């Protein structure tokens, strides 16, 4: 990518997300989504090769289809209600079409197949933006129209997403695909609690962005894209050996780490609404995520093949680029749970 074009591209992505999040008019919301989508394609093709080009095409076709469905739903709702206000989405069919379009943009099951493939075909930094920043605009739309959503359909999509994300990551050795399937699972948790407590979705999204950003930054420092490369962490960057496992355990939602907080709060919210069966199903299926995170931890800190550490240790470690925000992110990833009562009190 041309360095001169980067400020324009990233500012367009930021502006598109901001327009969508702050607008209450359907037309400007759609315009913001399109700005975001079109400006993100050069980010995916930052390294020009056939794999990144294929990933960008898959991304464009999926997002364009979702945008057409969304535009059709907006026009249908406007014809019936005579208004462009997002809070006036009262028509059942328009609401269903908007939910389908947002599910495609968020990569929720059964529209999730593009997420692992696109993430795998892009660099780690582009994959980080795809799995974090690109979620903000669709979730802001779902947040604004949450009172008019079909609860049964949304819970069905959420459970399907948790199942697809948990089962899809079991047989993977590519780290980017594993994080993509983890993102699908987290989207299921966020959307499941949206009809009951939209603010809980924002809390879950915030913690998810912190955890995913930390994981991508650590893997980017390690230059690891497969589980085999993770086993070389010890002799490449020794200080990453305890940090990667703690971050992955937090992503898996293991107490007393930060990742346990949103799952705990969401299960409590379901309990208040007498939805014990749904919360039990979600929590049980999510245990599969913890299993493949444990596989990565095993590769990172336990598997040291084929020789002992003394033989493998380098006499001089590689120099890494400074990452000033990484210590703060690591602290938030592991130590946020003690202040959770205060955060839940605000919600």
UniProtKB/TrEMBL annotation:
Q: InterPro entries from the entry? A: Complex_I_Subunit_2, NADH_DH_su2_C, NADH_UbQ_OxRdtase_chain2, ND/Mrp_TM
Transmembrane regions listed in the UniProt entry = 56-76, 96-115, 151-171, 178-196, 202-219, 239-257, 277-305, 325-346
NADH:quinone oxidoreductase/Mrp antiporter transmembrane domain segment(s): 23-286
Keyword Ribosomal protein tagged: no
Q: What is its EC number?
A: 7.1.1.2
Taking every annotated instance into account, which residue ranges of this chain make up the domain NADH dehydrogenase subunit 2 C-terminal?
Answer: 290-344
Protein location: Mitochondrion inner membrane
Q: Name one GO cellular component term.
A: mitochondrial inner membrane
Q: Which domain of life is it from?
A: Eukaryota
Stated membrane topology is:
Multi-pass membrane protein
MF term (GO), any: NADH dehydrogenase (ubiquinone) activity
Signal sequence extent = none
Sorted alphabetically, the Gene Ontology BP terms of this entry are:
mitochondrial electron transport, NADH to ubiquinone
Q: Which Pfam families match?
A: NADH_dehy_S2_C (PF06444), Proton_antipo_M (PF00361)
Catalysed reaction(s)? a ubiquinone + NADH + 5 H(+)(in) = a ubiquinol + NAD(+) + 4 H(+)(out)
Q: Which terms are listed as keywords in the entry?
A: Electron transport, Membrane, Mitochondrion, Mitochondrion inner membrane, NAD, Respiratory chain, Translocase, Transmembrane, Transmembrane helix, Transport, Ubiquinone
Family membership, please give it: Belongs to the complex I subunit 2 family.
Q: What does this protein do?
A: Core subunit of the mitochondrial membrane respiratory chain NADH dehydrogenase (Complex I) which catalyzes electron transfer from NADH through the respiratory chain, using ubiquinone as an electron acceptor. Essential for the catalytic activity and assembly of complex I.
Q: How does this protein assemble?
A: Core subunit of respiratory chain NADH dehydrogenase (Complex I) which is composed of 45 different subunits. Interacts with TMEM242.
Q: What is this protein called?
A: NADH-ubiquinone oxidoreductase chain 2
